[in-house]
Amino acid sequence: SAEIIDGKKIAQTMRAQLKDRINQLEDITPGLAVILIGDNQASKTYVSMKQKACEDLGIYSKLVKLPDTVKESELLDIIQELNEDQLIHGILVQLPLPAHISETSVIEAIYPSKDVDGFHPINIGRLQAGGEAFYPCTPNGIMKMLEFQEIDPAGKHAVVVGRSNIVGKPMGQLLLGKSATVTYCHSKTADLKTHTAQADILIAAAGIRNLITADHIKSGAVVIDVGMNRDEEGKLCGDVDYDQCRLKASAITPVPGGVGPMTITMLLFNTVESAERFSR
Ligand code: NAD
Questions:
Q1: ipTM passes above 0.95
Q2: What is its EC number (predicted)?
Q3: Which end of the chain is less crowded, N or C, counting CB atoms within 10 A of the terminal residue's CB?
Q4: Is 207 in the pocket of ligand 1 (CB under 6 A)?
Q5: Is 229 near ligand 1, meaning CB less than 6 Å away?
Q6: Which fold is adopted by the domain 26-112?
Q7: What integer pLDDT is reported at residue 217 of this predicted model?
Q8: What strands, in cross-sheet order, belong to the sheet with 60-66?
């Protein structure tokens, strides 16, 4: 039966390390600005989780709440003010945006040096080409988990299910950067199982409950479940049939308590890194 990768515990360890780094910063408190637009309940929940995580660590967090009628030009002006604000080292615009606002324009308005989500094209480019960059939080959190578990991707076959800009695509790039052989699968992939069954490291990020069953995985595989879905009773569950797969995998992440806690931790991590860069 598989080793359970305890994302909550790894996240706690990392947050303690971050606290030390914050304490070592002289004359500077890391600051994160979070822009929340409209009334989306999930967005509000994520934002308050992020703010609380900042407070717990001693990161200054500034919430900018805007109505969903806000004009794109107004939003861009606010971003520009935050770009120039010395107290702010990270800027995050909670997605999704109202339909009349261009996500691309908003993301590209944030200075790459403050883009702690790692969504700006400059940071995406640097992720691929190398160089100092912010990496997207969810896939980078998974890389940290693998590191903590002493799972070295080098030479392993990593199969990523999902190709979104925030999870799947950067996940494959990060694994490639650590010398894994990477296969991407997505909604148009023919015969998913033939690919996933070859994975030494399987990353499931499709957002479909029970997409990955025991016959999708190789015996001894490392299985990372990014999915956040709800079952009939409204309980949080991933993309992986956990009860089946844990008997066959060598290591597996649970949902909840796996990838989730790492994501916000990496946002804190990027904000602290940013403050360190500004203080140099
Ligand atoms: P998305 O909807 O943008 O992308 C889903 C991807 O899955 C797409 O690239 C699509 O091609 C692929 N896909 C869809 N059906 C498929 C199928 N049958 N076979 C193979 N591939 C298929 O979603 P996302 O933003 O990348 O998020 C994916 C999941 O991860 C969601 O459940 C989301 O809630 C969750 N998520 C969790 C965290 C976390 O911190 N735990 C963070 C971000 C996203």
A1: yes
A2: 1.5.1.5, 3.5.4.9
A3: C
A4: yes
A5: yes
A6: Rossmann fold (3.40.50)
A7: 98
A8: 60-66, 31-37, 90-93
Quickly tell me which residue has 């069954």 as its tokens.
197
Contact 170, 212 (CB under 8 A): no
If you search the block for the tokens 């010398």, which residue do you land on?
179
Q: How far apart are CA 129 and CA 209, in angstroms?
A: 34
Hey, what are 122's tokens?
Answer: 């400059």
> Given this chain, do its domains 26-112 and 137-259 carry the same CATH topology?
yes
Tell me if 163 CB under 6 Å of ligand 1: yes
Structure tokens at 280: 């140099």
Three-state secondary structure string covering 204-268: ECCCCCCCECHHHCCCCCEEEECCCEECCCCCEECCECHHHHCCCCCEECCCCCCHHHHHHHHHH
Q: Three-state DSSP class for 161? A: strand
d(Cα 222, Cα 5) in Å, to the nearest integer?
Answer: 10
Domain 137-259 has CATH 1.10.275.10: no
What backbone phi and psi angles, to 5 degrees, belong to 80?
-65, -40
DSSP letter at 190?
Answer: S
Tokens at 62, concatenated? 């500034």
Pick the atom of ligand 1 nearest to 229's CA.
32
Measured CA to CA, the distance from residue 116 to residue 107 in angstroms comes to 11
